[in-house]
Specification:
It contains ten helices and twelve strands. The protein is an alpha/beta fold. The protein has a single domain, classed as 3-Layer(aba) Sandwich (Rossmann fold). The strands form two sheets. The protein has an eight-stranded mixed beta sheet with strand order 6-7-8-3-9-10-12-11, sandwiched between helices. A four-stranded antiparallel beta sheet has the order 2-1-4-5. A hairpin with a 5-residue loop joins strand 11 and strand 12. Helix 4 packs across helix 5. The protein is globular and about 70 Å long. Bound molecules: iron/sulfur cluster.
Length: 325
């Protein structure tokens, strides 16, 4: 262990080429992730929120190198993930797992739950022989609130929430230290969402896990996260401790997202901010502040030409806005 943050992301960039014409020439670039940096301490959860297309899932996949970043650096416990060779990546894959949004699509329908959860144990040599694998799978299923008798069933026999539990058991099988939860509860009903979030939190306490918790809804990450990063068109525009961000949002985009979240306490008044239009295309995103085309307080000649950098406004609360820092 390095003693520093478990995960360090430095100036991460991912661009996808857009090809067209007979020769499939690159004619444009999708700026999916545009210089993202953050640190994450062991045992903590960073919530990452933003509308679809803001690059949060691409960022999650780049951290695990499921897709190759275009530039930047990812350090896991001090080890450079971005330059790791195959053997090193394989070892890292054990420590860094991902849970996807659609558990049905990510679970092989022809494999039993036992085989799905046990696969990682066998690949990484964490259990030997049928009996040991079966014992460990039974233990993992129990950890996620399923029964060992369900080992012989197939994914289609389970509800959405149960399938997500299977996905969590599969991730846990290899004893990871970091789990990227990529919209892991977004497809579930609200009551089931809460159950799965509670399960993830219990597992975090028991096992000391570290999470990057990606969601498009601020209310989903509020209780699950220590810190929250808000992304817009590939950039982090605001990041703070969860309570601070919800109590004192500074960026106009965060304010607009929070304005859409119902407040249980009627004495708490939030300004209603309705954004104009949709998120612009990440192909040729707007100059300057990416948000200026929708920002209710944008200043001509400043916001449309100069990129605002993240600045600390106190206590680790960082904001990228010319007028709010
Ligand atoms: Fe709005 Fe300008 Fe701040 Fe961007 S920099 S959020 S456009 S005020």
């Amino acid at each position: 262990m390095s003693g520093g943050p478990l995960l360090q992301v430095r100036h991460l960039v991912k661009r996808f080429p857009v090809r067209s014409g007979l020769l499939r020439r690159t004619t444009a670039q999708v700026h999916a992730v545009d210089g993202v940096s953050f640190d994450l301490q062991a045992g903590q959860t960073l919530g990452v929120v933003g509308e679809s297309g803001c690059g949060k899932s691409t960022m999650g996949r780049c951290i695990l190198r499921l897709i190759e970043p275009t530039a930047g650096q990812v350090l896991f416990d001090g080890q450079d993930v971005t330059t790791a060779n195959r053997a090193e990546l394989r070892a890292l894959a054990r420590q860094m797992q991902i849970i996807f949004q659609d558990p049905f699509a990510s679970l092989n329908p022809r494999m039993t739950v036992g085989a799905i959860v046990g696969e990682g144990l066998v690949i990484h040599g964490l259990a030997q022989g049928r009996a040991e694998v079966a014992d460990r799978v039974a233990e993992l299923l129990q950890m996620v609130g399923l029964s060992k008798d369900q080992m012989r069933r197939y994914p289609h026999e389970f509800s959405g929430g149960q399938r997500q539990r299977i996905g969590i058991a599969r991730a846990l099988a290899v004893q990871p230290r970091l789990i990227v939860c990529d919209e892991a509860v977004s497809a579930l009903d609200v009551s089931i969402q809460a159950q799965v979030i509670n399960l993830l939190q219990d597992l975090q306490e028991q096992l000391g896990l570290t999470y990057v918790f990606i969601a498009h809804d601020l209310s989903v990450v509020e209780h699950a996260s220590n810190r929250v990063a808000v992304m817009y068109l590939g950039r982090i525009v605001e990041m703070a401790d969860a309570r601070e961000l919800y109590a004192r949002p500074r960026h106009p985009y965060t304010e607009s997202l929070l304005a859409a979240v119902p407040v249980p306490d009627p004495s708490v008044k939030r300004q209603r901010i309705v954004l104009q239009g949709d998120v612009p295309s990440p192909i040729n995103p707007p100059e300057g502040c990416h948000f200026h085309t929708r920002c209710p307080i944008a200043q001509k000649g400043l916001c449309d030409s100069q990129r605002p950098e993240l600045k600390d406004v106190g206590g680790g609360h960082v904001v990228a806005c010319h007028l709010r820092n």
